[in-house]
Amino acid sequence: MAGRKSRNSISVKMCPQQRARHKAYNEPSKQTQRWMAEARQHVCAHINHQKSCQVCTSTAAAERQNQLTAQLKAAEARNRVRQLRLHYQDLKRRRVEEILEDEKGLTLNRR
Fold first, then answer.
1. CB 22 within 8 Å of CB 14
2. Contact 37, 49 (CB under 8 A)
């Protein structure tokens, strides 16, 4: 041990700027490494939670979009049926009017 220099004795002899550079490139202590690992785990857990929330919101948004699309298609189908019914009723009305016109013409010609 007498031949080895401890880190503290080296860092004490350095000026503050050199000591900061030296500490920046040294391995952190085990306690600091443990804190860094815990912080990394918290960050990863937070990111995963946010991603799962985004999936939920995007799924909910997609479901809402699908529901609106379905409602729009149903409304268009109802409108087409309504238009067909009105067209059929109009054709029927015209046919009845034509028949009545023909009967009027026949009764006028008989007199």
1. yes
2. no
